[in-house]
Design a protein that fits this description.
Distance between the termini: 105 Å
Shape: elongated
Number of helices: 4
Number of domains: 4
Structural class: alpha+beta
Order of helices and strands: HEEEEEEHHEEEEEHEEEEEEEEEE
CATH class of the largest domain: Mainly Beta
CATH superfamily of the largest domain: Efflux pump adaptor protein, beta barrel domain
Helix content: 25-40%
Number of strands: 21
Length: 397
C-alpha cells in the first residue's frame, strides 16, 4: 500500500514539472510575439544631380578608309622584266623607277631611227644642191631666151627642172619629219622600258617578277600604288539626318577619325562631298571626308568611326548612359525625391555626348538621378543617397 502511494506521488510531481515547463514555454513564445520585428534600413544608392551645361553635340558613324586615287601601274611597251627596283609595301615617290625592262631591242630601234633621220637629212642636202643648180640655169637662160640667143626649149627645160627640184626638196623635208617622228617614237619606247611611279604613295605587291613578260595589252597591272596623304573615309548617314548636314554646311562641320583601337587621329578632317542619291534599300546616303595623314599611320581599308560635331547646346541636361533604362522603345530614369522616395521618369533623349545622353524632356536641372544601385530599388520605395557622383566633363570626347 505504501509503495503504491509513493509511485502516485512521483508521477504527480513529474506531471507538475511538465505543466510548469509547458507554461514557461508558452510565456516565452508570447513574449517574443509581442516584440515588434526590426524594420530594414533603406538601401543606399549613388546619385548625380543634373545641371544645365554648355556642350558640343556629336554624332558617331561607322566608317571605312579608302584610297580615292589608287593607280594601277601598267607596262606601255612589251618586254621582259630585267630588274625590280622597289620593296613591296614601301612608300615610293612620283617618278621613282619601279621596273626596268630589257632595253636592248628599243636601243636598236633608236639607233635605226637615228640612221634613217641622218640619211633623210643627207638626201635633203643633195636635193637642195640640185635645186640651186637648176635655179642658176634658169637665171642664166632667161635673158638669153629674151634676146633669142638660145632656143626657147632650153629655157622650158630649165624651168621644168627647177619645178622638179623644188618638189624633190619638199619631199625630202617631209621624209625628214617622218623619220624624226619615228625617232621620237623609238625614244619614247626606250623611255617606257623604264617603268616609273606615276604618283607618290604606298606600293603593293608585284604581280610580275623578274624575267616575266610585260605586255601593254595585259588586263592585269604590274602593281598598284595608293596615296596615303590625304586618306579618305566614307560613311553613311540616314535620310532623316540630311537636313542637319545641309543646314550646318558640309565643309564647315568639324570631324574626327576614331580608329579601331579607340585612338583619335591627330588631324581634324573635312567633309568633301556626298553621293548624288539616297540608297533606296537602306535609306542612307554616303558621305566622303578627307584627313591629312603625313605620317601614313592610317591606310586604306581600315574600319573606324567618324565623330561629327553637329552643334552647340547652352543649357543641356545630361545623364550617364548607365542611368537610362529602355523598355519597349521607351527610355526612363529613376530619381530620388526630397523625401527619399524613388520615382520613375520617362525621358526623351537627344544626341549622345561621350558616355552621356542629352535629355530633351523629362528632367529638370537640380534633380537627383540614381546612377548606381538601380537593381536595389523600385519606384515608390525609399532609398538613401550615400554619395553624389560628379558629372563628367562635357567635351564630347
Amino acid at each position: 500500500m505504501k509503495a503504491n502511494k509513493s509511485a502516485r506521488r512521483w508521477w504527480m510531481a513529474a506531471a507538475m514539472l511538465v505543466v510548469v515547463a509547458a507554461i514557461g514555454r508558452l510565456a516565452a513564445g508570447q513574449g517574443k510575439a509581442a516584440t515588434p520585428p526590426a524594420v530594414p534600413s533603406p538601401p543606399e544608392v549613388g546619385v548625380i544631380r543634373v545641371q544645365g551645361e554648355a556642350v558640343s553635340t556629336y554624332r558617331e558613324y561607322p566608317a571605312r578608309t579608302y584610297a580615292r586615287d589608287l593607280v594601277e601601274v601598267r607596262g606601255r611597251v612589251d618586254g621582259y622584266v630585267d630588274r625590280r627596283l622597289f620593296e613591296i609595301g614601301s612608300d615610293v615617290r612620283a617618278g621613282q623607277v619601279l621596273y626596268r625592262l630589257d632595253v636592248r631591242p628599243y636601243e636598236a630601234e633608236v639607233a635605226r631611227a637615228q640612221g634613217a633621220l641622218a640619211q633623210a637629212a643627207a638626201d635633203i642636202a643633195q636635193a637642195e644642191a640640185t635645186r640651186l643648180k637648176v635655179r642658176q640655169d634658169v637665171n642664166r637662160l632667161e635673158p638669153l631666151a629674151i634676146r633669142e640667143a638660145v632656143p626657147k626649149q632650153d629655157l622650158d627645160n630649165a624651168l621644168a627642172a627647177r619645178q622638179a627640184a623644188d618638189a624633190a626638196v619638199s619631199a625630202r623635208k617631209a621624209s625628214v619629219e617622218a623619220n624624226r617622228a619615228i625617232l621620237r617614237t623609238a625614244e619614247l619606247n626606250l623611255e617606257y622600258a623604264t617603268i616609273r611611279a606615276p604618283i607618290s604613295g604606298r606600293i603593293g605587291d608585284s604581280l610580275l617578277q623578274v624575267g616575266g613578260l610585260v605586255t601593254k595589252t595585259s588586263p592585269q597591272p604590274l602593281t598598284t600604288i595608293v596615296p596615303l596623304d590625304p586618306v579618305w573615309v566614307r560613311f553613311q548617314i540616314s535620310e532623316a539626318e540630311l537636313p542637319l548636314f545641309r543646314d550646318a554646311g558640309l565643309g564647315a562641320m568639324p570631324i574626327q577619325l576614331v580608329l579601331s583601337d579607340g585612338a583619335v587621329h591627330p588631324f581634324e578632317g573635312r567633309i568633301e562631298n556626298t553621293l548624288n542619291s539616297v540608297n533606296t534599300r537602306t535609306g542612307t546616303m554616303e558621305v566622303q571626308a578627307m584627313f591629312r595623314n603625313p605620317d601614313h599611320t592610317v591606310v586604306p581599308g581600315q574600319f573606324s568611326r567618324v565623330r561629327v560635331r553637329t552643334g552647340e547646346r547652352a543649357n543641356a541636361v545630361l545623364v550617364p548612359l548607365r542611368a537610362v533604362q529602355e523598355l519597349q522603345g521607351q527610355r526612363s530614369v529613376l530619381t530620388l525625391g526630397a523625401d527619399d522616395t524613388v520615382q520613375i521618369r520617362t525621358v526623351i533623349t537627344g544626341d549622345r555626348v561621350d558616355q552621356r545622353w542629352i535629355v530633351e524632356r523629362g528632367l529638370e536641372p537640380g534633380e537627383a538621378v540614381i546612377v548606381d544601385g538601380l537593381q536595389k530599388v523600385r519606384p515608390g520605395s525609399r532609398a538613401t543617397a550615400h554619395r553624389e557622383t560628379a558629372p563628367a566633363p562635357a567635351d564630347g570626347r
